[in-house]
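Per reviewer request, we include the raw input and output of the structure prediction for the construct analysed in the revised manuscript.
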Amino acid sequence: MPPQASEHTASEPRGTQSLDLDFVRSQFPAFSEPSLHGWAFFENAGGSYACGPVIERLDRYYRETKVQPYGNYPASMRAGAEMDEAYSRLAGYLNVGEHEVHFGPSTSQNTYILAQAFRGILAAGDEIIVTNQDHEANSGSWRRLAEVRLRTPMPTGVVVREWRIDPETGMLKLDDLDALLTDRTRLVAFPHASNVVAHENPVAEIVARAHAFGAWAIVDGVAAAPHGLPDVSALGADVYLFSLYKTYGPHQGLMVVRTPLLEALPNQGHFFNAEVARKKLIPAGPDHAQIAAAAGIADYLDAVYAHHFVDAADAAERGRRIHTLFRTAEQARVAPLLDWLSHRDGVRLIGPADPILRMPTVAITSRNHPAPWLARQLAEHGIMAGSGHYYAARVLMGMGIPLDPGVLRMSFVHYTNDDEVARLIEALDQIL
């Protein structure tokens, strides 16, 4: 564990300033697993490998503390303490209050419950802006709030307006958002990055424009958080959602809801839990073991920080520095693939070719080969990748891409190495 600082340190970080991939990969049991030997993993956008500390914590919880937590006997007290640790330490990395962190079974479920809560504070004629760049989880739940209005001749529900992507690039334009914002806008829901287009949207700027009209900003960070946990306070989002199983952890969703909105939303849990912040928007009992195991993500990030830096910093600052390490490494790894694809005849690269502008999730279509066939052929070369629409059906529809067969998607995270990228390019060259 690295030194813990009680306040931000202003000194420049000292130590290794490029990511040590050998060290990083040593923290993931998958890279020493015999059954995975010889395979290059490019399905990270669907779920990353779990880091060792998460696996160890989950195993320990089930062996030693698989009891009802928060009781009066030692195993129960320890179970509750390990759950509390996950709330506290991940809140630190996200730069938010511990009470603002909510764990649920998935981001889709968390968004659905959040939308139901919003029913209690929205009035007839209020407007919600959604995009067609989103995963359906952060689009469909909000769109369904307008269904009552659509079934009746009178405006008895909210109005949903769509912020549409450019059909050629798949990107969102701020001018188009400005044209949609009105004094009736109550909510703007958008992705930090699309899981297909992968362009990193200017979250803080979008949030500021929404707030200028008095609207809440809901950010789907599922495709962005795996590339470095965000400083949610710096982004300004009222809600930030992502999936822990894509950030090296257990199969849970994490939802940050900032205090002003949390206080404004009606309780969705049992009435006697209405004043318990972490239960207000999670109506079902949480998965105790997986919440406890989520603290292992913080263990891993602490280990990365301690290996690369020698000065102390608080969790938020450690997170910012690690984010830079991860993104710099990813941009260097994905650049050769983007360059190769952008010059390849018969291939359509979805999203920008500049690695600085996007997350390292790369989707393509081929003029000559359907995406599922390409994925099967890559598997023959020891490459794990996938095909389909990835619940981003509206993105593909907006870009004129058939949902069947969809796109071939190849996704990196910081532990992807040069050899794996070279193998992927070589395999694609032979297949295409």
